[in-house]
Every structure is written in C-alpha cells, then in structure tokens.
Design goal:
The complex is a heterodimer of chains A (about 200) and B (about 300). Chain A is mainly alpha-helical. Chain A is built from eleven helices and no strands. The longest helix of chain A has 29 residues, at about 170-200. Chain B has one domain (about 20-125, about 145-155, about 185-305). Chain B has helices at about 5-15, 25-40, 45-70, 70-90, 110-125, 165-170, 185-190, 200-205, 220-235, 240-250, 260-270, 275-290, 295-305. Chain B is elongated, with a radius of gyration of 21 Å. Classes of the chains: A mainly alpha (about 200), B mainly alpha (about 300). Chains A and B meet through helix 2, helix 3, helix 4, helix 6 and helix 8 of A and helix 1, helix 2 and helix 3 of B.
Amino acid sequence: MRPGWLRRTHTPASAFVAGRARRRTWFAKVYDAHFTFVWRSARRLGTPEANLDDVVQEIFMVAFRRQDEFEGRSSVKTWLYGIVFNVVRAHRRELAQKHPEVIDGDRRADSDRLIDGGEGPQEHLSKREAARFIDRFLDSLDEDRRAVFVLAELEQLTAPEIALVVGARLNTVYSRLRLARVEFTQAIERQRARDSRRTP
Amino acid sequence: MSDLDEAGRALIALADDAHDPTDMDRARVRAALARRLGAAAGLGLGAVAGVGATAKAAAGAGTVASAGGATTAAAGSALAMKLMGIVAITTAVGVGAGIKIGRRSVEPGAAAKISEVHTRRIAAPLPAPAPPPLPAPALAPAREQSTIEAVPPARPIVQPAPRHEPRRNEASPIKAPPHEAPSEALPAATTPPPALETPAATTAASDPCAPAQTSQSGVAGEARLVTDGVRARRSGRSACALSLLDAHARVFPDGVLAEERDAERALALAALGRTAEARTAATAFLRKYPASLLGARLRHLADASR
C-alpha cells in the first residue's frame, strides 16, 4: 500500500478536468525533458534495479498529481528531485519492512571488495567498473549520507538546493556531505591498496 | 562545492552516464505510465476524466507502436480508434481503467463492431431505476470464493531477475515525442453517460467474478472481461482475475484483446504462486508476441527461475 501522501491529490476535480489539455502538454514536456535524470537519480538513490520501472512511474504519477503545487517555487528540476527523493525513500522503507534482506544487504556491502574482478590499477578502470565501484560505495552509505552525496557529487546540486530537496537544515547537509566524502576517499584508498598488492 | 580529490572526481566522471536510462526504458515507462495514469485519473473523477486520461494512454501506446512497426501513422491512429471505441464502452459501465493495446493492426471487422455496439448502447432505453454508481475497483465488495483470501497481494516487490547491462544494447531508436491525444476523443468520451447502462451490464460488472453469463458479445464483452480481470489482479484478487481471463480465452480465443489477456493471465498465475504455469504462459506469450509492449514485465517471469 502506498503511503498517504502519494495518494493525495490537491486538485479539485473540476479544475482537473478543465486543465486537462494544458496539463497533458506540460506533463509530457516534463516527462521528455526530465525522464533521464529522474531514472538516473532513482537508481543512484538506491532503488533496486528490479523495481526501477515501478518507482519511476510512481515518481511521475506524483508529479502529475502535484503540478499545481509547483508554480515556479523552485526549478522544475529541484521540484522533481524532491519527489524522486521522497518516493525512493518511501519505497526503500516499504522494502526494508517486507524484504529486509534487500536493503540490509545494501548496507553490509563491503567497500573493500568494491571491484571483485578488477585487475588493473585505477587508471585502467573501465566505465563499467567505475559504475560498479560507485554503486557499491553508495550501497555502503547510510541513507541520509547517500542522498546528499548523490545530489552533491553526482547530480551537482548546490547545498541549499539539497537542503530543500531532502528537507534538512543546511548545516546538516554540509555535515553529511563531509562524512560521505571521507568515506568515499577511504573506499578509494582501500581500492588502491588492493590494486597495488595485486600488481607489484 | 566539491572538494573530492582528483581520483574521486575522475571515478565519478567515468561512471557519469552509467545510470542513465536507455530509449527502451524511456518508452516502456512512458507507455506503462500512460496506462496507469488513465486508471488513476478515472478514479473518482467520473467518465470524462477517465476517458481523457485514457486518451493519453492511447497516445502513449501509439507512440511506441509506431516506433516499432512499419505502419507508422496508420497503426497509431487505428490503435487510438480501437482504444477510444473500447474505452467509450467500458467507461459506460464504470470502468475507467485504461487498457494498453500492443497490437499493430486492427482486424477489419473491429471498427465496425465497435460502432455497432456503440450505437446499440446509446439506443438502449434508460433503465427505470438508475442503479447507484459502481464503487471504485479497490472498494468493490469482494464476492469471491474462499480460496482467494489466502492469496497474497499480487504485486511482487522484488523481482529477482536483474536486467543490467544488456539493456543498453537493445535500445532501439525510439524517440518518444510529446504525443497529443486526438482532441476529437473528448466529445465522444462524454457521449455515453453511466445512466445509459443496461441492467445486464450492471449486474455483470458488480459481480466481477461471474464471467461470460452475460450474452454480450463483441468488443464490449471482451473489454469487460479483460478489464475486470486486470482490475481484479491489481486489487490482489488473482484467482478471480484468472477465472475472468480464462473465460475470455474460452469465449474469445482470438479476440481483439487476446494479447492483453495472455499477458494478464501470466501475471495472474504468477501472483497466485503458480510459478511454473506462469513461466510457461509468459514464454508462450513472448514467442507469440515478440514485439509486444507488454513483454517487458513478462520477460522477468519467463527468466525468473532460470
């Protein structure tokens, strides 16, 4: 069952019907312009691959219902990030309740074994290996740090934007980011150490 | 505000587009979304909104179908027409759910059938006491056999088969342009108000698990069975869904909606835990309709336990 805020609609039926044509255009545009980052962020924020279709649909469903809330308060992108963040978080919570092994498995992911098949030094990392490294690293972070790290380092949002998206204070955002960066650097160091052991 | 070291930044740059969707992802989600939005918008907003949103579904389905097939514009519009016809009928019985049609062509008789049924419906006399509006699907009183209570909610949260790398390669040049639904759909949509329902239609719809007794034939009968089946499955009444879809298979083995039925049947079997049968059904579906839009969900099923 979806949480209540996903089901709520803020639009009276009459306005909904009247604005239908305009809405369709606006919504189709938003979909086309922003599908890529919505999909990408949903993945990066920790939606299991198998559930990605459902979660991305859910995000756009919410966006569709909440268009009236948008009204230029922020950029469409920031607004959508907020929805992505909330939907993914709700999904992960639901998942953690029903299938704890999926989410806990994430957190236990051992950053020391980030690249199992990795053979060369870091300069020779393939795109794929890099993606794997990032994936595993993100899975090893706690949820809050993960979100901030993804939004700052991967999506290039500013700290004030992130504060808006995740609904935290600016200082909190900075501190989470700092900690996540430390973990990232450590993960890379460990990887380097492993690589140098392997290739003397 | 990044103060990562160079190695970190290089790593992130290297993985930059690793999480991007393929065009397939985009088109698949678009079609599914259009279908779902149709259902959601129809909920509690009456026939007009339901049909309006389903027109969107037609647009979405049309987009993808035309991208995959040779009969571009013709298929799109024929598809939309087919959908409109069915939708006009199904909305009249209170079903707002959009049906996604993955077919490329419409049988020559189908359009005629649609208009025939349509005319008949509108010409039908008003039933003396107007029946109360049908409840939303999820709230419908579950009148079904006791076995159904044991059935868990249908939607699997975790689907085991991860689909990772290969998708990038299977991307076909589907570009999903903003597709406007034909505006002629709107007046047509409002034509059959719920009050025009025949009494037979009402009884059949209020007991979604009693299939095929209604002598209704043609597209309307087909649409009712399949749509009720879809609704039943989505609300977790998978056994009910299966019996409706099986009824459709008996009455309309080669019906206009045979593709949707076969796909839904596989999903219903899976939801019932009849995994082997679900896999067989999904495999058969993929063989029979290799280009179907509905294939994406079934592929998981077919691959699930390999």
